[in-house]
């Protein structure tokens, strides 16, 4: 997991407020560890842990960012429960987006990096582009492989 967190810190160096990061991969692939690394790289306050039961957790900007520059707040979302029932799956994600908006986060999404676990098919609607990070975990060992790319789209 340390390598995954270090990778997250390196990714954070290229992220700015308003960016959306979608983390994709099976259970145990390292999505939360990667989010923890991104948070450390952004210089957020507090411990970054899985927001599964609260859906979204805000992490306020700290006093400094790794590698220099101003720290950036992070909103960490676990969309697993938002996409969990058949009604949400069939409405194109509209209900899930409404639920995310209903959380009434204090941090404006434009003022933070938004990291969404299990967000494919939903989080893309939050911005004109997003960073998609796909994590794979090999079943025979602890090796994890990451593939990432910026994806442009229209709202």
TrEMBL record:
Keyword annotations from UniProtKB, A to Z: ATP-binding, Cytoplasm, Magnesium, Membrane, Metal-binding, Nucleotide-binding, Transmembrane, Transmembrane helix, tRNA processing
Compartments (UniProt record): Cytoplasm
Matching InterPro entries: P-loop_NTPase (IPR027417), T6A_TsaE (IPR003442)
Gene Ontology CC annotation, any one: cytoplasm
Family that this chain belongs to: Belongs to the TsaE family.
Summary of the function given for this chain in its UniProt record: Required for the formation of a threonylcarbamoyl group on adenosine at position 37 (t(6)A37) in tRNAs that read codons beginning with adenine. Is involved in the transfer of the threonylcarbamoyl moiety of threonylcarbamoyl-AMP (TC-AMP) to the N6 group of A37, together with TsaD and TsaB. TsaE seems to play an indirect role in the t(6)A biosynthesis pathway, possibly in regulating the core enzymatic function of TsaD.
Protein name: tRNA threonylcarbamoyladenosine biosynthesis protein TsaE
Species annotation: Hoyosella altamirensis
């Amino acid at each position: 997991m340390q390598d995954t967190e270090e990778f997250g810190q390196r990714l954070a160096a290229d992220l700015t407020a308003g960016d959306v990061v979608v983390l994709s991969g099976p259970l145990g692939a390292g999505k939360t560890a990667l989010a923890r690394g991104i948070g450390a790289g952004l210089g957020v306050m507090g411990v970054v842990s899985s927001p599964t039961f609260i859906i979204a957790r805000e992490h306020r900007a700290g006093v400094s960012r790794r590698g220099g520059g101003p720290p950036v707040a992070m909103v960490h979302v676990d969309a697993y429960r938002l996409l969990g029932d058949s009604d949400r799956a069939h409405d194109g994600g509209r209900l899930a987006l409404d639920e995310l908006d209903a959380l009434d986060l204090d941090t404006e999404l434009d003022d933070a990096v938004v990291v969404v676990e299990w967000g494919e098919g939903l989080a893309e609607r939050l911005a004109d582009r997003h960073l998609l990070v796909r994590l794979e975990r090999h079943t025979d060992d602890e090796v994890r492989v990451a593939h990432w790319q910026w994806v442009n789209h229209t709202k």
